[in-house]
Amino acid sequence: MANYEILKNPFSVKISSASCALDLGDGSERGEYVDQDYLLRLMNRPHRGINLMYCYYPYDKGWPERASVAHKASGSFAWDYPYDDYFPYQGGPKGSAEGQPFQQIRDVRRHGQDATLTLTMDCAVKDEEIAFISRELACFGRMRIRLNHECDGNWFSFNKRYSYKEVGEFFVRFSKVLKKNAPEIRLISCFGSISRETGRLNYEDDLGPMLPHADVWSMDRYLSLHYGWPNNICEEDQLNQKFTNTGTDGMWEEMEKVYAAFRRITGEKKPMELCELNADGDVGGVSAQRQECLKFYRRVLKERLPYLKGITYYQFRDRGRLGLEREDPNNSGVGVGQPFLEDYKSVIFNPYFLPGQEWKPLDSGSGKAVLDWRSSDDAAGLGWKARLKSKPIFFELKFQKELNLMVSVNGRWFYKKPGLEWVDAISAVDGLSAGKTVEIAAFAPPADGANPARSGGWQTSVLTEMTEMPELRVRYGWKPSQKKA
């Protein structure tokens, strides 16, 4: 017979930041968005955040259509459109919060993650529009905006239209309006390349003033990159080679120099992140991609730089060879796992990259408890410990039907949406033997992905009451008798 029991003696479980958090890019000019149910099933744990790539050029001809739909490309470069070919940000004063990226952000947050919105934007956008956008994003709590990234480059439309000084001034103006209207949203600056001639940052005087106004400093770096994709291919003997192959050592040296320059300019210490990191399988093949990415993450674990607080792998599914999966050219909804995928699934469970958890006994004589969700690395949930009598063949948990929960069982994560009651967690305990203790924890991110509007701290905290403790169904060693039909 199966053993049914109400889990008792709960613990308070608090999540805290990882030593170095891991995020994942999901969708861009190179690939479509993949829903979070798929990602969770594949990865077995949520990331700290999911990076979404959007643009906002509301005064342009063709807007709000995507640039590659509204305009014809020149055929010589991926960014040869009048405005950037990211997904159009469909909000703003003339838009609607019913479209994208709002639905994707909701999907990300209900699955226990935070959203990073990479947003390229026309520097002519007025303060009133920035304020409107800030307010319509405020309900997503501690999300992050990475505004006009790689702004020391020359490929994005904002760089083609404005001087580097004007780009820097726009970032400062955006920051001031954002903080006034959505103070919980974090703003990320993204640039950093060292001039060989001067040893200083390129455009340091123009872009340096951004740094004090950013909550997080970041740079994008690729161990190798085919930047000519999709208009040419990488070959060693090409006369017009449009790819780079920096490698871990070269990239690491530049990252340390860039962070030192940020410190020198500001006199401050702020967290540093790599908001786009990968090696391109177009350069030397996918086996070389796997080897270089492994080398990089191993170096992160060896060096443990105190200022490197986050890494975003760019990206999950890609039409080229920059993804953990490659999009099947026959069916855009199908992904083909690349060699590094299985390694990455192991890397993300290294304790250095995992959020911390603090367990303390909780007195819940009333049978009620409150779960508090603030962000993916700042939340309070409930935990229980179950001792196995022998090897289980069924291990299922029953929760209140109306709750939206992220459930961790023995370190493996499951999602329970409202309307369902049972979580089948046998995959997390399969193979465990008698006497093993299984740790179960539950957290309650917002059910629709947005913080409910209410007075008193609603932008930071989502409170959920659990009025019934979960029920565990576990069964050991069942051999059903054979019966004739």
Description:
With 485 residues, the protein is α/β, with parallel strands linked by helices. It has two domains: 3-14 and 355-476, Jelly Rolls (Sandwich); 19-353, TIM Barrel (Alpha-Beta Barrel). It is 22% helix and 29% strand. The protein is built from eleven helices and 25 strands. The protein has helices at 36-43, 67-70, 102-110, 127-137, 157-161, 164-181, 204-207, 247-266, 286-303, 340-347, 426-429, and strands at residues 3-6, 11-16, 21-25, 49-56, 87-88, 114-121, 144-147, 186-190, 216-225, 244-245, 272-279, 308-313, 317-318, 325-328, 331-337, 356-361, 369-375, 378-387, 392-398, 405-409, 412-416, 422-424, 437-443, 462-466, 471-476. Strands 2, 16, 17, 18, 20, 21, 23 and 24 form an eight-stranded antiparallel beta sheet that branches. The longest helix is centred in the middle third of the chain and has 20 residues, at 247-266. The chain is globular and about 75 Å long. The two termini are 23 Å apart. The model has no long low-confidence stretch (mean pLDDT 94).
Helical residues, percent: 10-25%
Q: What profile does the largest beta sheet have?
A: 8 strands, antiparallel
Q: What's the gyration radius in Å?
A: 24 Å
Structural class based on helices, strands and sheet pairing: alpha/beta
Strand content: 25-35%
What is the first-to-last residue Cα distance? 23 Å
Q: Which class of the largest domain in CATH terms? A: Alpha Beta
Fill in the CATH topology of the largest domain: TIM Barrel
Count of distinct structural domains: 2
What integer is the average pLDDT? 94
CATH superfamily of the largest domain: Glycosidases
Q: What ranges have pLDDT less than 50 throughout 5 or more consecutive residues?
A: none
Shape: globular
Number of helices: 11
Number of strands: 25
CATH arch. level architecture of the largest domain: Alpha-Beta Barrel
